[in-house]
Amino acid sequence: THSDMKKILLVMFVALTGLCASAQQGKMAIGADLGVVPVLEGDGSPTNLEIGAKFQYGFTDNVRFEADIDYAFKAKNIDFFDLTANVHYLVPVSGGVSIYPLVGIGYGHAAFSYSEHVEGIKFTASKGFNRFLFNIGAGADFKLSDNLVLNFELKYQYFKDFSRLPIKVGINYAF
């Protein structure tokens, strides 16, 4: 149920933020993403092109908070908007490369529209719905310079009756 899922996500968030006590707090970054997002449920499920913007804040060297906003362009008469908050646990691999699992919660809006011409008359219908969502996935950061980081991310996004699989590449400016 959603109540159980919220409890699990809260416990995971608290556990992740409590794992590390490193000294480098306060590191921030802003960034942009581009990706493809297959919808995993329903007949004729679309694959949308998505753009996004994000803000990251490092609680420690290993634990990072990310707020992001994404818009998936219309495909098969469906477009999508989401606003999420994620927690990343960074694991350095080598020379400026880190991998991370992620977990997050958010809000999503799916919009469906349809139009048809019948005997010269245009009929249009649209419907949308808003729902709680959660993310779980993994990513990788590739440090290009002191301030630029390239990243790749894959996550499962649960959204009742409309779950998705965002696959994104992005660039972040750290400060």
Salient structural properties:
8-stranded antiparallel beta barrel; single chain; mainly beta; 175 residues
Walk me through what this model shows.
- This protein has one helix at about 1-20; strands spanning about 30-40, 45-60, 65-75, 80-90, 90-95, 95-120, 120-145, 150-160, 165-175.
- Residues about 15-25 have low confidence and may be disordered.
- Strands 1-2-3-4-6-7-8-9 form an eight-stranded antiparallel barrel.
- The chain is built from one helix and nine strands, in the order αβββββββββ.
- With about 180 residues, it is mostly beta strands.
- A hairpin with a 4-residue loop joins strand 7 (about 120-145) and strand 8.
What's a concise summary of this model?
This protein has one helix spanning 2-18, and strands spanning 28-38, 47-58, 63-75, 78-89, 91-94, 97-118, 121-143, 148-158, 167-174. It is 10% helix and 66% strand.
- Count of beta strands: 9
**Helix content class:** under 10%
Mean pLDDT: 87
Order of adjacent strands in the largest pleated sheet? 1-2-3-4-6-7-8-9
Strand percentage, roughly?
A: over 45%
The main sheet comes to: 8 strands, antiparallel, barrel
- What structural category arises from helix and sheet content? mainly beta
C-alpha geometry: elongated
Topology record:
Elements: H1 2-18, E1 28-38, E2 47-58, E3 63-75, E4 78-89, E5 91-94, E6 97-118, E7 121-143, E8 148-158, E9 167-174
Antiparallel strand pairs: 1-2, 1-9, 2-3, 3-4, 4-6, 5-6, 6-7, 7-8, 8-9
